[in-house]
Amino acid sequence: MESYCNFEIPKKSHAFKPYIFSVIEINEFFEVADRYPKKKSTYTHLVVPLFFRLLYYCGLRCAEAINLHIRDINIKNQTLYIEKSKYGKSRYVPMSEDVLKHIIEYINIVHNNSDTDALLFTNVHGDPLSEKCIYTKFRNILWKAGIMHGGRGNGPRMHDLRHSYAVHRLQQWIEDGVNTNSMLPYLSAYMGHENIYMTEEYLHLTYEQFSLITQKMEPFNSVIPKVGDYLG
């Protein structure tokens, strides 16, 4: 995979409001990712669609995807093992059929003879994939998908795929008539948050765009602090 990159990763901002992708934008994003050009001697065209699916469809943090090893993937149980991530928490993350399909294809081609201790994603030299390089691909996809980037501090950022996953999951539960208050602890555990209140922060961060969600979660709002530091 290429090691040359043109973009700098934006620094985290405590005042930053997440960019929540619409469902249409998500579809357009992955249509472009799935057509990422194949280049000689690299597997970028396979890395890109899989990596970003892990961020959105599995709600992973960027560092969690970068640090995945072959041993962390259980094809039979259709799960990923995230070991000692943020806050020192480990967890199992179920995969959708779509993500599983991409992982199987990727491993069969890229890691056909790899040891189970090998990293899932590496560059052309076998070194760990850098966040800077994958961010370059992210910006390229946004541009080709016609999704405007607001410049430094305005997003979208790669982490906003994770934010979008959480919001879209809650939206789907509401549409399905599910009791979101009872499901929030499961979402919190799935995303590897330290506690349920960190998951609630996602709702406060997106209050203006998704007021229906915060209304549905109203019983929690009286005990949850206002948005302060950035939470991932």
From TrEMBL:
<dbReference type="InterPro" id="IPR013762">
    <property type="entry name" value="Integrase-like_cat_sf"/>
</dbReference>
<dbReference type="GO" id="GO:0003677">
    <property type="term" value="F:DNA binding"/>
</dbReference>
<dbReference type="InterPro" id="IPR011010">
    <property type="entry name" value="DNA_brk_join_enz"/>
</dbReference>
<protein>
    <submittedName>
        <fullName>Tyrosine-type recombinase/integrase</fullName>
    </submittedName>
</protein>
<dbReference type="InterPro" id="IPR050090">
    <property type="entry name" value="Tyrosine_recombinase_XerCD"/>
</dbReference>
<keyword id="KW-0233">DNA recombination</keyword>
<feature type="domain" description="Tyr recombinase">
    <location>
        <begin position="16"/>
        <end position="215"/>
    </location>
</feature>
<dbReference type="GO" id="GO:0015074">
    <property type="term" value="P:DNA integration"/>
</dbReference>
<dbReference type="Pfam" id="PF00589">
    <property type="entry name" value="Phage_integrase"/>
</dbReference>
<dbReference type="InterPro" id="IPR002104">
    <property type="entry name" value="Integrase_catalytic"/>
</dbReference>
<dbReference type="GO" id="GO:0006310">
    <property type="term" value="P:DNA recombination"/>
</dbReference>
